[in-house]
Write a structure and sequence with these properties.
The complex is a heterodimer. Helices cover about 35% and strands about 15% of the residues of chain A. Chain A is of the alpha/beta class. Chain A folds into 3 domains: about 220 residues, P-loop containing nucleotide triphosphate hydrolases (Rossmann fold, 3-Layer(aba) Sandwich), CATH 3.40.50.300; about 60 residues, no CATH class; about 90 residues, no CATH class. In chain A, strands 6-7-8-3-9-10-12-11 form an 8-stranded mixed beta sheet, with helices on both faces. Chain A has a 4-stranded antiparallel beta sheet with strand order 2-1-4-5. In chain A, helix 7 links the parallel strand 7 and strand 8. In chain A, helix 4 packs across helix 5, helix 5 crosses helix 6 and helix 13 packs antiparallel against helix 14. The longest helix of chain A has 18 residues. Chain B has a domain of about 240 residues: Orthogonal Bundle (MetI-like fold), CATH 1.10.3720. In chain B, about 65% of the residues lie in helices and about 0% in strands. Chain B contains 14 helices and 2 strands, in the order H-H-H-E-E-H-H-H-H-H-H-H-H-H-H-H. Chain B has a two-stranded antiparallel sheet with strand order 1-2. Chain B is elongated, with a radius of gyration of 28 Å. The termini of chain B are far apart. The chains are: A alpha/beta, B mainly alpha. Chains A and B meet through helix 3, helix 4, helix 6 and helix 7 of A and helix 1, helix 8 and helix 9 of B. The complex binds iron/sulfur cluster. Iron/sulfur cluster binds next to loops of chain A.
Chain lengths: ~450, ~350
């Protein structure tokens, strides 16, 4: 994309949203309520006429980001500037007026249209709200809008339930267009639709963009959607950007390890494609208690080894997994492989060698581990486990296997023109980590 | 900006067709019938329900009879000249020189007989509908409207607004309804508008609670957020998006409680706290003749003075309940816990 030297239409700085969680009155009084860090200091700019894609797994804060951009959710901190004007500080009336410029397209075309209103009234509502058109002019504008999004003006008197998902999404788009906005935030605009319809809707969005000079922020969980439509892409992980840059750059090395894993999951149209899928270990951690340091370290296949360690990356990852599991759990059950068909077995009765096998099986550790020192530490930890000294095992492992990624929260490092990656691998302080060979 | 970007090309899917936007090429209407609103659909459903339709006919007939029982004059101008009731409901017939005595059994001249003051019971029953029915409808309209606004505000805004409003409701629920109505009438005195006020004062609380619960559900819908994103004001969001989607149970509740109010009015009348004693209101008529249930003059029981007003109450309330059930079925409304309390008076 040839970005002009324009100033951004939308400028987001340090946008943060924490939710209170488990907040019963008693919990709050006792100071026990916890915060869900849905969004943690997100910065972004949107330039006129461009499309910024934002991808991430579910629960990474995408929808929170989209909604707090429009102040549909009040952000905890941060600013959202539209043409220099801070939306978070705007009065209610001013904000209502500004909504003419920034519009929203919802993910679910079934839930986002009022079932009691006709399509004409749904699309005409913004005209009424902002006193844009009345009577004849309103009817005309509504049928114009319907035609623009590929619907027929005859449909104005029908109700949403008479339409298919794709048609409904068109209605939602017409509604957003009615106020003649500059920016449209699309929250997963096609994920509720059939694949063939998805392409239609995405193409419609692209057409409208060139026709009306719109700027888009497109939220998606699917990189392939974003690949086609976005000029720039931001990859969100647990409320923070892991990587942000022009689409071509994000889809090519250098990668953020998380983005790389997401990319590896996109199937190629080539039927001979074998796939080189990177599987991430573990689940997405809870935003209630996000991991320290780099938030991706609990799952990162490239998690950095401490200085002086040099073992196969997969073994290192497995050892990290074991360490993390020990930290969060307190029973042998959590660290041993499940034996088919055996229920309620007393793991404390296992012999030292049986326990050894089971733990290695659970984490895919070879016997012995390639690195001698690591094997020794593992042995010690296992002894403790066998003695039932869970705490001791935890300490031994934690002390021996600590990645810099757990300690340091990486900033977004510049890796190219306008391309930034939040990963210590790209920090000059770790010039040549063993990971690059692993 | 490159023009290539943004267009998806998938083999087997003809992107150019979409570009030229051939109108609705591959779209089929899910239904080909004309558009009809939900109320139209509900009405069609309702019409199929025989008992509900029977109730509706009865209520219509009773209302018309009450309306046309005696002429209505407003400020000296007769706006309704018809007079179906043969006699003035308040007229003591022998005082008018007619050959009529008290407690005359039903005959052709007096189909429902005469009461203890030699008034024509038929005329009184017809005319009495005016009190019971109009109080019933007015009270329900007013209470439902108040409850709707109150509950909508509590449910939509939530937080401390909701907390405060709901605690006030709890206070009202803590009073036994009919007793409160009794006290109000006792304090304000007997009369038509006093009765309306007494029943309104307690009746709205049930609607408020019902609509609040519905609104809590409805406001979670994305179309409410969508309206907010368009810049709609709260008032518009509540009354255009939230309330219309929450109102069905309220309509059901309102139709069911018209009967309850009518019974309540009759009950107060029977206790001598309704309208002035000589009024033709159904409950008051029962009160006036209550001794006769036990023992009439001459050892016979003049059943007609109680059966006909009582029957009128029964018929009306039953019909209203049939209608309410019919509306409920037609709207497929969910009856929540609150519904049970909704119409208590
Ligand atoms: S900082 Fe470490 S854990 Fe985080 S992505 Fe980079 S290598 Fe992985």
């Amino acid at each position: 994309m040839a970005r002009t030297a324009d100033s951004p239409v939308l400028e987001v700085e340090d946008l943060t949203k924490y939710y209170e969680s488990g907040g019963g009155l008693v919990d709050t009084l006792l100071g026990r309520s916890q915060e869900v860090k849905a969004l943690d200091g997100v910065d972004l700019e949107l330039y006129p006429g461009e499309t910024l894609g934002i991808v991430g797994e579910s629960g990474c804060g995408k929808t929170t980001l989209a909604r707090s951009l429009l102040q549909l959710i009040e952000p905890t901190a941060g600013t959202v500037r539209y043409e220099g004007e801070d939306l978070t500080a705007a009065s209610d009336d001013r904000l209502r007026a500004l909504r003419k410029d920034i519009q929203y397209i919802f993910q679910d075309p079934f839930a986002s249209l009022n079932p009691r209103l006709t399509v004409g009234d749904i699309v005409g509502e913004p005209l009424d709200i902002h006193d844009i058109a009345e009577g004849e002019a309103r009817a005309e504008r509504v049928s114009d809008l319907l035609e623009t999004v590929g619907l027929n003006q005859r449909h104005a008197h029908r109700y949403p339930h008479e339409f298919s998902g794709g048609q409904r999404q068109r209605i939602g788009i017409a509604r957003a267009l009615a106020v003649d906005p500059e920016v449209i935030v699309c929250d997963e605009p096609v994920s509720a639709l059939d694949v063939s319809v998805q392409a239609q809707i995405l193409n419609l969005l692209a057409d409208l963009q060139s026709e009306f000079g719109l700027s888009y922020i497109v939220i998606a969980h699917d990189l392939s959607v974003v690949e086609h439509i976005a000029d720039r892409v931001g990859v969100l992980y647990l409320g923070e950007f892991a990587e942000i840059g022009p689409t071509e750059d994000v889809f090519q090395p250098p990668y953020h390890p998380y983005a790389e894993a997401l990319l590896s999951a996109i199937p190629e149209p080539d039927p001979g494609w074998e796939g080189d899928r990177i599987f991430l270990s573990g689940d997405v951690p809870s935003p209630l208690n996000p991991p320290s340091g780099c938030r991706f370290h609990t799952r990162c296949p490239k998690v950095i080894q401490p200085e002086g360690t040099d073992m196969a990356q997969s073994e290192w990852r497995s050892l990290m997994d074991l360490t993390q599991r020990l930290r969060s759990a307190d029973s042998l059950k959590a660290v041993t492989a499940v034996q088919e068909g055996v229920e309620n077995e007393d793991l404390g009765q296992l012999s030292r060698s049986a326990l050894d096998t089971r733990v290695r099986a659970e984490f895919g550790l070879p016997d012995p581990i390639g690195d001698r020192e690591a094997e020794e530490v593992f042995g010690t930890a296992l002894d403790h486990l066998h003695d039932g000294a869970f705490e001791a095992a935890r300490t031994v492992m934690s002390d021996a296997f600590e990645s810099p990624c757990e300690r340091t929260d990486p900033a977004l490092f510049d890796v190219g023109d306008d391309h930034r990656i939040a990963c210590l691998l790209y920090d000059d302080a770790y010039p040549d980590t063993p990971t690059r060979t692993g | 900006m490159s023009t290539d970007r943004g267009r998806i090309r998938i083999t087997g899917f003809d992107a150019d067709r979409v570009e030229s936007r051939e109108p609705l090429s591959d779209w089929t209407e899910t239904r080909d019938t004309g558009t009809e609103g939900r109320w139209v659909r509900a009405w069609r459903e309702f019409r199929r329900n025989r008992s509900a339709m029977l109730g509706l006919y009865i209520v219509i007939v009773m209302s018309l009879l009450a309306l046309f029982a005696r002429p209505i004059t407003i400020a000296g101008v007769t706006v309704q000249p018809f007079s179906l009731a043969p006699y003035d409901p308040g007229a003591i017939l022998y005082a008018q020189g007619l050959d009529v005595s008290a407690y005359e059994a039903p005959s052709l001249a007096h189909p429902f007989g005469t009461d203890g003051s030699a008034r024509d019971v038929f005329s009184r029953v017809l005319y009495g509908g005016r009190f019971s029915l109009s109080i019933g409808f007015i009270v329900v309209l007013v209470t439902a409207a108040i409850g709707l606004v109150y509950g909508a505000i509590a449910g939509y805004y939530g937080g401390w607004v909701d907390e405060t409003l709901m605690r006030i409701l709890d206070l009202i629920f803590a009073f036994p309804g009919l007793l409160l109505a009794l006290i109000i009438v006792a304090v304000l005195g007997k009369g038509y508008w006093e009765l309306v006020l007494a029943f309104t004062a307690i009746g709205w609380a049930g609607y408020a609670r019902l609509i609040r619960g519905e609104i809590l559900k409805v406001k979670e819908n994305e179309y409410v957020l969508a309206a907010k994103a368009l810049g709609a004001r709260d008032r518009r969001i509540i009354f255009r998006h939230v309330v219309p989607n929450a109102i069905a149970p309220l309509v059901v509740q309102a139709s069911l409680s018209i009967g309850t109010v009518v019974i309540g009015v009759a009950a107060l009348g029977f206790l001598g706290l309704g309208l002035p004693p000589s009024s033709a209101e159904w409950g008051t008529m029962l009160d006036q003749t209550r001794q006769t249930i036990v023992q009439g003059p001459g050892g016979s029981i003049p059943w007609w003075v109680t059966v006909f007003p009582g029957g009128a109450i029964f018929l009306f309330v039953m019909s209203m309940n049939l209608i309410g059930d019919g509306i409920n079925d037609a709207l497929d409304a969910q009856e929540g816990e609150d519904v049970a309390r909704g119409g208590e008076v």
